[in-house]
Specification:
The complex is a heterotrimer. Chain A is mainly alpha-helical. Chain A is 73% helix and 3% strand. In chain A, helix 1 packs parallel to helix 5. Chain B has one domain: ABC transporter involved in vitamin B12 uptake, BtuC. The longest helix of chain B has 27 residues. The chains are: A mainly alpha, B mainly alpha, C alpha/beta. At the B-C interface, helix 8, helix 9, helix 10 and helix 11 of B face helix 2, helix 3, helix 4 and helix 5 of C.
Chain lengths: 285, 335, 255
């Protein structure tokens, strides 16, 4: 039984990472209608930035977290302005090509400068033991960090004027423009928030895994799976879908097969979409 | 000068088009004699990718459904050919069509659930299929031959490099001709109506699901052909031929070249494949290492400034020049 | 007179909202029926239910004696019900004549093998389609736009083209959702004349319309809806004088 709970904790931790990445992605999809396939590579940049700031710069982990989030927020705005805004109104698949171009640029750049995988030390390297569950403290940080950020994001969206504007644009872009919401500003803001979230996920996860140029490519696929399962543009869907996928994966690895660990997510998606072609929650069509 | 302009204006675009086709074809035929062996090999591979881009063009460019499973399907075609020719020991002329049919059949199985979804959902579902196929090939040693891979026999008449070049050229022409016929037919217009407005097509009495499925399966048949060509040219296969990055490359070749045109996929696949190879062997250290960075920048710039691809952009430029010329002529009337 | 279309107790719920509530009416062959009602009365939903775009929560639709409830839109179109949409739906980037060709596609059968083998059937069907396109181009007076992309021609011509696409399949019943919507007052005459010609050809027409003057001159019968419920039915003058209709429209009808 303790094995089961151990896997459950790992699943929740995996899910936390997925939710942080997928939330940003679903917001971007809902606001701008673009398939931001390079989101996972911005996550990767966040992890490398942590290495630079913390390992090379010797700055405290938690301060580094703030620095990385802020820097990536700016990076997200730059990406939106330079790559995606000129493509607004073009078919989906065109923004997808631009995103692949961006992926190639970022990955080649990082690989060219530092081809080896790096590791980042844990800020507090201890393992908790509780009722038969062994858990590294960093896993707990990931879980708690995700919950804090989700709550903050929800408060921002529901309680502030800017936040409600984001939600309004996500649900109905033309309508929001009609009532005088500046869609350009909102989309820049959304990119800032989404990319900062991805950076937070990267910083929290980095001590648990290697930092490598391709670390974002499988993650972005899974994030897309979550966004689609949840319904494109639906935040509730991304949260539910993210945790669900993390837990399903952890269990499938433990009880079915680890060789196929990356396949379960995609199989789940195909089954769900074959039954409900527009996802579990009603997002934008 | 004025005489040349007048001549050029009188030159009907229909003959112009035929002239360009004859010229390109002649160039393609004499290529093995005028260029190095290495270039012949690069061109052969590029033409195989062009077949793949043309196949994606049918389902994406004309039918409007962005399949991201074409990399996997190309790999399935390649493996099917390799397995039937080597392990089963079938005759070449039997193995090739069977490989294409197997790919079309797998395409049918993938299309049945995924074509129920629309727009970006379809793209993501097919991408998921691609990842699954890749993982299966990676892990199922019996099927893929694992790291050692699968040997592909080259029949006696395709031992020579130039022979393979002409064979792939022939297959490319066959693909082009079939695509041309489809696009010009009532069936092709049906596909385009789905791309243009699926709900209206459905209300106009068109069974959109069946037509999308047909387009997808035909497209898979030809991407299987492309895979078989790659298998024959390389003589060796490993699981990475099914990776989803290949789907992205087919997509890039198609969109940068120009979707919904027949020359676009050719220009995109051959041009970009050549460009990538050129950057590799140019011998300048910075370019060699960072070639995918330049490639990525080119993608972004072309897709922003030429959203309809190189061929689409050229067509627009042509129309613009014609209208300018016409305007100047009207301006000249008072003289 | 035979009944071409019969709607029985048609109901559609959206969440808890009743968009169409137990609507019954008959359409007789060769007549023009107008469906009127204020915005949100459920008129377009009614068309979507008949056309199969959405399926009813309860109730039935009969066409030429067949129960077509729950059929797919393309089957209903093939059975002989053609329609246009409120926001003009066309294959916008395709030329006008291609739009018409697609409208006739459901009456042709040539498929992949005909393409590859160049069968005589494909050739014959192409000729048939061309003849039909020329006929409808003349009928809808769209000859001047034949090669223009459908999205680039004037709004009023687009409305006629949408009707033309619907006519290409030789329908027995034509559902027109606001055929003059978004068209200036001076330009509606062309469309009214077109609908008159369609009636003269013997095609039954069911039309949703706001412009009362136009309805009074065209319609043989009127069905009035409000909040998804049928509030009146009958010949134009009687419906217009009906107190429930006047109340629904706040006297708009009297003008």
């Amino acid at each position: 039984m303790s094995f089961f709970f151990n896997q459950l904790v790992i699943g929740i931790q995996l899910g936390s990472q997925y939710v942080m990445v997928a939330l940003g992605l679903t917001l971007i999809f809902g606001i701008l209608d673009i398939s931001h396939f390079a989101h996972g590579h911005l996550y990767m940049i966040g992890a490398y930035l942590l290495y630079i700031v913390m390992v090379l710069g010797g700055i405290n982990y938690w301060i580094a977290l703030i620095i990385c989030m802020a820097a990536l927020a700016v990076g997200g705005v730059v990406v939106e302005r330079l790559v995606y805004r000129p493509l607004r109104g073009q078919p989906h698949i065109n923004t997808f090509i631009a995103a692949i171009g961006l992926i190639l640029v970022l990955e080649t750049l990082v690989r060219g400068i530092q081809p080896k995988a790096l590791s980042v030390p844990k800020p507090i390297d201890t393992t908790l033991q509780f009722a038969g569950i062994n858990m590294e403290l960093q896993r707990l940080f990931v879980i708690i960090g995700a919950v804090v950020l989700i709550v903050l994001l929800q408060l921002f969206i529901k309680r502030t004027r800017l936040g409600t504007a984001i939600e309004a644009v996500a649900q109905d872009r033309e309508g929001a423009a009609l009532v005088g919401i500046n869609v350009n500003r909102i989309s820049a803001l959304t990119f800032a928030i989404a990319t900062a979230l991805a950076a937070a996920a990267a910083v929290l996860m980095a001590p648990l895994a290697f930092v490598s140029p391709e670390m974002g490519s499988v993650l972005i696929l899974k994030a897309f799976v979550i966004v689609v399962i949840g319904g494109l543009g639906s935040m509730k869907g991304a949260i539910v879908g993210g945790y669900l996928l993390g837990i399903i994966e952890a269990m499938a690895i433990a009880y079915i097969s680890s060789a196929y660990k990356d396949v379960f997510a995609f199989a789940v998606l195909i089954i769900i979409l074959a039954i409900r072609p527009t996802g579990l929650f009603r997002g934008r069509d | 000068m004025a005489g040349i302009v007048r001549l050029w204006k009188k030159f009907p675009s229909k003959y112009g088009k035929a002239g360009i086709i004859v010229l390109v074809l002649a160039l393609a035929v004499v290529m093995p004699w005028i260029t190095s062996k290495y270039n012949v090999r690069i061109l052969t591979l590029a033409m195989a990718w062009a077949i793949a881009a043309l196949s994606l063009n049918l389902i994406l460019g004309y039918t409007g459904q962005a399949s991201l499973a074409h990399g996997a399907l190309m790999g399935i075609g390649a493996y099917a050919f390799g397995i039937f020719a080597e392990r089963v020991g079938l005759n070449f002329w039997l193995a090739l069509p069977i490989a294409c049919l197997v790919t079309a059949f797998i395409g049918l199985l993938i299309g049945l659930p995924s074509l129920r979804t629309k727009g970006p959902y379809f793209a993501i579902v097919t991408l998921c299929f691609n990842v699954i196929v890749y993982k299966v090939f990676e892990n199922w040693q019996w099927l893929s031959g694992g790291i050692q891979g699968q040997v592909v026999p080259q029949p006696s008449f395709l031992q020579q490099r130039w022979a393979r070049y002409y064979f792939v050229l022939g297959c490319l022409l066959l693909t082009l001709i079939v695509m041309h016929f489809i696009v010009k037919s009532l069936l092709g217009l049906t596909f385009m109506s789905i791309r243009s407005n699926e709900n209206l097509a459905e209300a106009t009495g068109i069974n959109t699901f069946r037509n999308k499925l047909l387009s997808f399966v035909v497209s898979c048949f030809f991407v299987g052909l492309a895979g078989s060509m790659l298998a024959i040219e390389n003589g060796q296969l490993d699981p990475t031929i099914t990776i989803h990055l290949n789907s992205f490359y087919i997509l890039i070749f198609l969109l940068i070249g120009g979707a919904a045109t027949l020359s676009g996929p050719l220009v995109g696949a051959i041009g970009l494949y050549w460009l990538l190879d050129y950057m590799k062997k140019i011998g300048i250290k910075g370019i060699e290492e960072f070639r995918y960075l330049f490639f990525g920048l080119i993608l972004i710039i072309v897709i922003i400034y030429m959203p309809r691809g190189l061929v689409g952009g050229l067509k627009q430029l042509w129309e613009w020049m014609k209208s300018r010329l016409k305007r100047r002529k009207i301006g000249e009337v008072p003289e | 007179m035979t009944t071409l279309l019969r709607v029985e107790g048609l109901t559609r719920l959206f969440g808890g909202l009743v968009a169409v509530n137990k609507v019954d009416f008959d359409v007789e062959e060769g007549k023009i029926i107008a469906i009127i009602g204020p915005n949100g009365a459920g008129k377009s939903t009614l068309f979507n239910l008949i056309g199969g775009t959405i399926s009813p929560s309860s109730g039935k639709v009969f066409f030429a004696g067949n129960d077509i409830t729950g059929w797919k839109p393309y089957s209903i179109a093939r059975a002989g019900i053609a329609r246009t949409f409120q926001t003009t739906a066309l294959f916008e980037e395709l030329p006008v004549y291609v739009n018409l060709v697609i409208g006739h596609r459901m009456r042709t059968r040539s498929g992949l093998w005909d393409v590859i083998l160049h069968t005589p059937r494909q050739k014959r069907e192409k000729n048939e389609t061309t003849a039909k396109v020329l006929e409808v181009l003349e009928f809808t007076e769209l000859g001047e736009y034949i090669n223009a992309p459908a999205g680039s021609i004037p709004q009023e011509a687009q409305k006629r083209l949408a009707i033309g696409v619907a006519l290409m399949g030789n329908p027995r019943l034509l559902l027109l959702d606001e055929p003059t919507g978004g068209v200036g007052m001076g330009e509606t005459d062309n469309i009214i004349a077109l609908i008159d010609r369609i009636r003269a050809k013997g095609v039954t027409v069911c039309v949703i319309e706001h412009k009362m003057r136009m309805i009074m001159s065209l319609a043989d019968r009127i069905v009035a809806l409000n909040f998804g419920v049928k509030i009146a039915e009958g010949d134009p003058q009687r419906v217009c004088d009906d107190p429930a209709v006047i109340e629904a429209y706040l006297g708009e009808c009297i003008a």
